[in-house]
Amino acid sequence: MQPLRRPQPAARPDPAPSRLSYKLHRLWLTPLIRSLIRVGIPAFALAFSLGYYLSNPRTTETIVLTFLDLRQQIAEREEFQVRVMVMPGVSDELSQDVQEVVGLDFPVSSFDLDLDQLADRVEELDAVASARVAIRPGGVLEMQIEERTPAVLWQGREALEILDAEGHRVGEVPAGATPPDLPLLVGDGVDAAVPEALALLEAAAPLGARLGGLVRIGERRWDLVLREGPRLKLPEANPVGELQRVLAAQGAEDLLDRDIVAVDMRNPRRPVLRLSPEAKSRLLEMRLAAQEQRGADG
Fold first, then answer.
1. pLDDT digits (tens, 9 = 90+) for 101-125
2. Domains 78-147 and 152-282 agree in fold
3. Can you identify the CATH homologous superfamily of domain 152-282?
4. Cβ atoms within 10 A of the Cβ of 179, count?
5. Closest Cα to residue 256, out of 269, 240, 245?
6. What residue segments make up the domains of the chain, in order of their start?
7. pLDDT of residue 182
8. Across the beta sheet with 272-275, what order do the strands follow?
9. Class of 78-147 in CATH
10. CA-to-CA separations, 120 to 67, 105, 127, 163, in angstroms, rounded
């Protein structure tokens, strides 16, 4: 016999999430937490594992030796070998000096060459203004070197040296060797005043072969020395202008051909001519003769 009441349907589950599930879902939607779980934790685990692996000294030593062996194998490959060094346009003497300074024993691997260091070592040579080093195809080490141009000879206290137009040392003239045909500068502090000396030499060009050289006095001013003629004492200020005044007098009155030993222009307002002893004697005789003549006339 069946019951008269209809059976009640089973209770449906509540679709709403639980409090814990809701909080975990909200936490997962946070960008920082998602990045930490997806990237941070795996990265930490990897770093920890790698650190633990490398903490063993034998493991570290094996890795280093393997890397060095691999590098050596690559460096010794034929395409990385440098077999020759070229220096286009460099003089033979400087070329020998560069080879001594560089000190390379070819062939050598390009991995073992520090090009910047090589350029710095070459630029330490007195005759080198600048140097650029590059490795060209075919195992060629090319050095582009700019040489200093000799401009003057400097007779210092110790040796006869060659300077360029800026006063940089180019080299030294060996004892007993024939010096190059360059203007001669003498005295202390010449290297700091070479541009001014060259301006004076250019202004004195009309003197030609009579020009002997320049002497630096007190590291302040110049004396111009002639092979045949007086010594020109130039002022510290505007020496070129005062030299041009003397040359103008030479052109007009043959001043430098007279019997004088010095033309003192140190005070431009009062130039002084210093006579030779013979000229002084003749001048004195002329004055005495003039006085006697005036006495006889009186």
1. 998 888 888 878 889 999 999 999 9
2. no
3. Cell division protein FtsQ/DivIB (3.40.50.11690)
4. 12
5. 245
6. 78-147, 152-282
7. 94
8. 169-172, 160-163, 152-155, 184-186, 211-217, 221-226, 231-233, 260-264, 272-275
9. alpha beta
10. 30, 19, 13, 21
Contact 191, 179 (CB under 8 A): no
Q: Which residue has the tokens 């005036």?
A: 294
Rounded Cα distance between 25 and 12, Å, is 23
β-pairing, 160-163 vs 169-172, is antiparallel
| 195, two tokens | 């541009």
Report how far residue 204's alpha carbon sits from residue 151's, in angstroms, rounded to the nearest whole number: 16
- What CA–CA distance (Å, rounded) separates 117 from 120? 5
Please give the radius of gyration of the chain, using alpha carbons only, rounded to the nearest integer: 45
Pairwise CA distance, residues 232 & 268, whole Å: 12
Distances (CA, A) of 135 to 87, 92, 101, 119, 146: 12, 21, 18, 12, 18
With tokens 């030993």, the residue in question is 261
- pTM given for the model: 0.67
Tokens of 273: 């001519």
| Cis, bond preceding 107 (omega within 30 deg of 0) | yes
DSSP-derived secondary structure letter, 148: P
Tens-digit pLDDT profile for residues 130-162: 999 998 888 899 999 999 999 999 998 788 999
Cβ(162)–Cβ(170) below 8 Å = yes
Q: Which two tokens mark 197?
A: 């000396």
Q: Tokens standing for 29?
A: 């939607």
- Do 233 and 220 form a contact (C-beta atoms < 8 A)? no
